[in-house]
Design brief:
The protein is an alpha/beta fold and about 475 residues long. Helices cover about 40% and strands about 20% of the residues. Strands 1, 2, 10, 11, 12, 13 and 19 form a 7-stranded mixed β-sheet that branches. A 7-stranded mixed β-sheet has the order 8-7-15-16-17-14-18, sandwiched between helices.
Length: about 475
């Protein structure tokens, strides 16, 4: 009997434990189900306008509408806002791994933020041409390039031609935005239908080589497949475009915009992976991957074109074709913390011609104020065969290129830390005939669904995304009752 008593107690104890476990699990599931139901009810919201995508276009749209008293809900797939205004810390220094610079004086919506933030201005771009470093302060800049006298003369002629055409595009139209010119402009049409190689065909091949690197590094593609309108519009004006980076990272620009959006009453939901946008009568319904649903009077889709085509249902064949036509150039950004590499204004921006590196930006300057920290730079790669290398091989290849800038730099020992960010969706690749054929269709709303993004604005930079967000907001504010 004595031997059975412990077994009985044990059996009773086990039964009790099993019962309590089952009860606890039951209660847990009950609470979880109750929580999920309540959570879904809380997040199933209605707003006057829902903006999908919290990149620079979506933030601009939300900011303008919210400040006008419109009830706005902003949905973002990721867990942070900003899109390609992406910054990480490398070597203790904020390093931009997306949009590489801020251009001042382009957009009235953005300029107040640029004035509010601390900036590190980028000086004239230095060049590494076939392994030779040419600094902008060394006398006649063009005469320092390792090219023939004929090529130098043609280089000057090409710059004069671009400047003259740039003035003609602006002349008498009262516009500040070249890419927003009406297609009735004969010069606009001519430039838009040409490639850069066609536009520069009368000049020495080294001229094309120079501008191929300059435009390709920022806009993807090459002189044989980028519209000449990009070249003239961007580089035909002031050659010293006031570029800068934000101290603390360019992502601070997006975060400052978000603060003002929230102060104006805008609501934000992060982690909202939208899978369907569909108009139903006077409402637009939005469904997320996790089942959450939202409804609004109007929606602004501020995501890349292919994503917009995927989530927006019942698009016309013409609108689908236009969205399908948009091409993005992939690129990689590589942030690197280095020893024995120069840091200073003269190397705040550097372009490589004839190498595997497109451009580097000095991310330190006077941010660190401590030479012992070393130098933090970001390197842009836009050659696909290079971009697809494993991280370690990619960094080793870049390090070899950097030795051309600093002979004291040891590629095998002087890379302290690095971070690699690959963007399948870089900037819009503006090919000939793309704007004239699709610009109107890309801008048109689909019922109560509007579209914003650099592909809508025709201007393939973050500034164009701001422009498109402003345009979408203005059109919605013109609606009755807004």
């Amino acid at each position: 009997m004595k031997s059975k008593l412990p077994k009985s107690k044990s059996a009773c104890s086990i039964s009790h434990i099993i019962f309590m476990v089952i009860l606890s699990i039951s209660l847990l599931f009950s609470k979880q189900a109750s929580y999920c139901q309540t959570n879904n009810q809380t997040k199933s919201q209605h707003a006057q306008v829902i903006v999908i995508g919290a990149g620079i276009a979506g933030l601009t749209t939300a900011l303008i509408l919210s400040k006008k008293g419109v009830d706005v809900l902003l949905l973002e797939k990721n867990l942070q806002v900003g899109g390609r205004l992406n910054s990480v810390t490398v070597g203790g220094i904020p390093c931009n791994m997306g949009a590489q610079w801020i251009v001042t004086g382009l957009q009235p919506v953005i300029d107040p933020y640029i004035e509010r933030l601390q900036l590190q201005h980028l000086k004239n771009i230095s060049v590494v041409w076939n392994d030779k470093l040419i600094m902008p302060g060394t006398g006649n800049y063009l005469s320092q390039l390792p090219i023939s006298k004929e090529a130098q003369n043609d280089m000057i002629s090409s710059i004069v031609k671009m400047a003259n055409d740039h003035k003609k595009l602006f002349k008498g139209n009262g516009r500040d935005w070249v890419f927003d010119l009406q297609a009735e402009d004969s010069l606009w049409i001519k430039l838009e239908k040409q490639t850069i190689a066609d536009y520069l065909s009368a000049y020495h091949p080294d001229v094309i080589k120079f501008w191929d690197a300059r435009v390709g590094g920022g806009f993807g593609g090459n002189a044989n497949n980028i519209s000449a309108l990009v070249l003239v519009a961007w580089y035909g004006g002031d050659p010293n475009i006031p570029m800068a980076i934000v101290k603390g990272g360019n992502q601070l620009l997006a975060e400052e915009m978000l603060k003002d959006c929230k102060n104006a009453g805008m609501k934000l939901v992060l982690g909202a992976d939208v899978t369907e946008v569909k108009q139903k009568g006077t409402q637009v319904m939005i469904i997320c991957r996790d089942g959450r649903e939202y409804a609004s009077e109007y929606v602004v889709v501020a995501v890349p074109s292919f994503a917009a085509k995927e989530i927006v249902k019942e698009l016309s064949a013409e609108k689908s074709e236009a969205l399908e036509s948009v091409k993005y150039n992939p690129l990689a950004e590589v942030g690197m913390h280095l020893k024995n590499f120069p840091s200073g204004e003269e190397l705040s921006a550097l372009m490589f011609i004839g190498g595997d590196v497109a451009a580097i930006l000095n991310q330190t300057g006077d941010i660190a104020g401590n030479p012992k920290v070393g130098t933090v730079i970001c390197v842009t790669i836009n050659k696909k065969e290079i971009m697809d290398l494993p991280d370690k091989e990619l960094v080793a290849l870049i390090a070899k290129e950097l030795k051309k800038v600093s002979p004291n730099f040891d590629p095998g020992k002087d890379v302290i830390e690095y971070s690699v960010k690959r963007w399948k969706i870089g900037e819009v690749h503006v090919t000939p005939n793309y704007l004239s054929k699709y610009r109107k269709l890309l801008r048109e709303p689909s019922g109560r669904i509007y579209f914003a993004g650099d592909y809508v604005s025709d201007f393939p930079t973050w500034g164009g995304a701001v422009w498109s967000g402003s345009k979408a907001a203005s059109e919605l504010l013109s609606k009755p009752g807004k």
